Amino acid sequence: MLSRAQLDDAVTRQIIDAEQRDQLIALADGTLGARAERPQAQSLDENMRLIGGGNDVFVTIGVVMLGAGLLAALMTVIGDQRVTVFAIMAVFLWAVAEFVTRQRRMRLASTVIGLGFVFAVQAILTDLIIVNYDLAIPDNPLQLAAMRPQLGMAGTLFLGGIALSAALYFWRFRVPIMAGVIALCLTGLAFFYVTLFLYDGVTEGRLYMPALDDLPELLRNALYMPLISGLVIFAVGVAFDLHDRERVTVWSDCAFWLHVISAPLLVHPLFIMSTGQDVVFGEIEPGTGAMVMLAVLIAAFVYVALAIDRRSLLIPTLAYFGSLGIYYLINSAANQTGIPPFALILLVVGALIIMFGAGWQRIRSLIIGPTLPTSLLDKLPPIRVQSV
């Protein structure tokens, strides 16, 4: 029979999760029957597994205080050697993660430690790049053009270095938020390389310098970059979800962060492209056609979120549309009477949030179940409806 220490080691090695370990222990103790109903009740909701309990919060506070104290002490003693300071911080956070994350699997504390480690790495890379490439913010932004060779390598080292460190950290500790960090860095690299390609095209004569009148169309075309990046990140998140339909492994938690990141990258370009809003000055004056397209976008995102069982995709989407509605109401209140079109959108968004919060799985069963073929439903997260 496996001992408690062996089961804890299995959790550390990601063979089983903590909930499965507790169920095995309860089975050995003969108390599993009393707890059999609990996992089913919990599975009705999307388990983001961001906080492991009160002790997790307690340890997180301790880690923040300890790290802040060490950073303040190092800045006081050797503050002129920033690379050394943050190198020590990175080693310290890695050592803390060996206990808090590898041994105890504290979720919130592990997330905070991981983000602190990434921050320390980016601080090291920033200082090294500034010194080695002699980079400084010029007084005239046009002077940045003369720094093209240094900027190309510096940007690659900075974003690539952070992505590599996050990947190494994830390989060691399996902290899900590192998937989001990697996605953001790779998206930043994509934007960076496209910018360099366009700049080189202009300087080499392959592309012409856009005139001021061409700026709106240029910026509108630039929206394809975040749209493509968002689609790629969303596809990877869906792949993780399909790999773990029951949402019991770390890959499901990685998918949560990927959906959080992909939503804004998808929503904003689609909103601008479908409604014809002013991408340069951000003017929001939607007519009937724009409002209809906006409603279609909301409906599409709601359907996709229901299909893949991810409120983490829907929350940023509704927040974005709701923010647009508030922005429009504030800017139009002084010169309009009656009910502005976006007031209706706010009403719809607010009603959707309340409705989905109250009955997400039942809505999934009513909308997704009848509209998708069984072959596809068998690959998606199962629909769980609590019996009355």
From TrEMBL:
- Which organism was this protein described from? Roseitalea porphyridii
Give the record's keywords alphabetically.
Membrane, Transmembrane, Transmembrane helix
The reply on keyword Transmembrane is: yes
Question: What phylogenetic lineage does the species belong to?
Answer: Bacteria, Pseudomonadati, Pseudomonadota, Alphaproteobacteria, Hyphomicrobiales
State the name under which the record lists this protein: DUF2157 domain-containing protein
**Domain of life (superkingdom):** Bacteria
Specify whether Nuclease is a keyword of the entry. Answer: no
Q: Where are the bilayer-spanning segments? A: 57-78, 84-101, 108-131, 151-171, 178-202, 222-242, 254-275, 287-306, 313-330, 342-360
